[in-house]
Design brief:
By secondary structure, the protein is α+β, with helices and mostly antiparallel strands. Helix content is 26%, strand content 30%.
Length: 223
């Protein structure tokens, strides 16, 4: 499988974070590692590898030379069986694979490993939408925190046809940090007072807020 891009839609990024506790950057980074990949039903693929908090399962579709992640979740109590498993490294022979989201069973998973062959996108060509093949452009997006008191900006790829917003690897890392900051703010009973404009790297705040927000961001970046 020749591939040059991995994308995840903003909606899916929010879903896997809220429902499964999986950060978008962790899901995208998994495909850039050395995961075990098998064909699954409905033309999709299942990738499993060890992540920060344990084994992680990523389901993705492939077309136009790009992988689009459709969901990701912590692996659980199902184990690949069969002769093919003997070829998997020892650390992967004990991996658990989560099946509940698509109700996969061993019969739904192919026996052969799928190998990703990475190749660069042609220089000067914009990335194509993984769904309809139309060109995408990078556009600034906003993320509203704490009921509109904090504004975060980030870049996303927008399809010229369907209008969907997708994140690549670099953008996913930024978006994942924003999600962590959002959770920290929601969990705090005493929100910082005042107004702030935060672009993911630089803070523009009242002096009384600067230290508090900088501390939150450092906690997010190191989480």
């Amino acid at each position: 499988m020749r591939i040059h891009d991995v994308f995840i839609s903003r909606d899916v990024a929010d879903k896997i974070w809220e429902e499964h506790g999986v950060s978008v950057d962790e899901a995208v980074d998994l495909l850039y590692g050395d995961p075990m990949i098998r064909r699954a039903r409905r033309g999709r693929y299942m990738a499993v590898d060890l992540a920060t908090g344990g084994y992680l399962t990523v389901i993705f579709e492939y077309q136009q030379g790009a992988a689009e992640i459709v969901t990701a979740y912590p692996s659980s109590d199902w184990r690949l069986a069969g002769e093919a498993v003997q070829e998997i490294p020892t650390e992967k022979m004990v991996m658990n694979m989560e099946l509940r989201a698509f109700e996969y069973s061993p019969d739904d998973i192919g026996d052969e490993n799928v190998i990703l062959e990475w190749e660069p996108r042609p220089v000067g060509e914009p990335p194509l939408c993984p769904r309809d093949g139309h060109p995408m452009t990078s556009q600034q997006q906003t993320y509203i925190l704490a009921g509109g008191r904090f504004i975060v900006t980030y870049e996303g790829w927008v399809c010229s046809e369907c209008g969907e917003v997708f994140l690549d690897r670099q953008q996913a890392r930024r978006y994942g940090a924003i999600q962590m900051l959002d959770r920290l703010l929601k969990e705090r009973k005493d929100l910082p007072k005042g107004q702030v404009l935060f672009d993911g790297q630089d803070l523009f705040v009242n002096l009384s807020l600067a230290q508090d927000m900088a501390t939150l961001w450092r906690q997010t970046a190191s989480a």
